[in-house]
Amino acid sequence: QVQLVESGGGLVQAGGSLRLSCAASGRTFSRYAMGWFRQAPGKEREFVAACSGSGDIISYGDSVKGRFTISRDNAKNTVYLQMNSLKPEDTAVYYCAADLGWSSTWYAPSRAGDYDYWGQGTQVTVSS
Which residues of 66-76 are buried (b: 16+ CB within 10 A; e: fewer)? Predict the structure, then answer.
């Protein structure tokens, strides 16, 4: 199994920035597609960003395009989410996820059901 641990969440004012990290266990991290999702109380889980195992394929949810950047360091078994120009509506628990499917090296799925393992989440709160 794969263990995922998020960090970097916290309280920030609107317009500020945060950088989230997700550290993963496993012997073949470079083969995993990695995704970020978020969920606010009473809301459905929302796709934020994803990166293929190779790092060449990246996708973003419409609500964060131009503000958030996903990246990965396969040597450190870590994926990052740089969040800039934060808005109060970005407030949520942010989860990272790993897709170990056969095509995960070259694809970055945006559907939660495509991911096999999930972290515990980290809280991001943006004040107005």
Answer: eebebebebee
